[in-house]
Design brief:
222 residues, mainly alpha, 11 helices, 77% helix, 0% strand
């Protein structure tokens, strides 16, 4: 077993065991323990909608606590995602992602401001985050910065959905979700067109350069 995996398991296993024990002996925290473990597959390649999970758990706990616990679970699985991408990027369907216009457009933002791009993509549900999930490990972006960016980006996103669960009744909640889904779909289409336009040279990345970068790879691997 590689040293990186040994270090990861040395952290994750004790935390997981402690969480299970906490849920077993402190009944009022069982839902939070469930949220912690729910957040792991919900933010990996398993198609589990984490937004609905935040709304559900927001009905029982403070939105701040829900956001923090879910963000912690998300960070726990970042390492697995990162390693899986490095291992599997040669597969045919992942090569297609790299060859797509969406990917080639997204990489323009990533090379200019990788940390900010990750935070924004993790926070905004209308940005195709899977592109940045692929970009980070394949571009050699440091794992710790990747995890920090995901934590910072997901935290406000989780809080908003948990707050919806805590404050809205079912009819209003359903209307809000429909409006959010509609807006996200329209914005997703707009962002996708923008990234494709960048890849084809029809548009420019809307990033203000505060620092001149002579070598884009240095900004990624530093």
């Amino acid at each position: 077993m590689k040293s990186d995996w040994k270090k990861y398991l040395a952290v994750v296993l004790p935390i997981s065991i402690a969480a299970v024990a906490l849920g077993a002996y402190v009944p009022e925290l069982r839902q939070l323990v469930l949220l912690f473990f729910y957040s792991m597959p919900a933010n990996s390649f398993v198609p589990v909608p984490h937004e609905l999970g935040m709304i559900y758990f927001g009905q029982y706990y403070s939105p701040v606590i829900v956001a923090l616990v879910a963000a912690a679970g998300t960070v726990m699985v970042c390492f697995v995602d990162y390693q899986a991408m490095n291992f599997a990027f040669g597969l045919k369907h992942l090569r297609k992602v790299k060859e797509s216009d969406l990917y080639r457009g997204a990489i323009q933002y990533f090379l200019k401001a990788p940390f900010v791009s990750l935070v924004v993509a993790a926070a905004m549900p209308f940005i195709p985050f899977y592109l940045f999930r692929v970009l980070s490990p394949t571009a050699g972006y440091p794992l710790r910065r990747y995890m920090m960016a995901i934590f910072i980006g997901r935290l406000p996103r989780y809080y908003v959905f948990a707050l919806m669960g805590a404050t809205l009744e079912l009819p209003s909640l359903a209307i809000a979700l429909v409006l959010i889904l509609g807006a996200c779909w329209l914005l997703y289409k707009r962002v996708s067109r923008h990234l494709i336009g960048i890849a084809r040279g029809e548009e420019e990345p809307e990033v203000v350069d505060t620092v001149t970068i002579s070598n884009p790879e240095e900004s990624v691997t530093a």
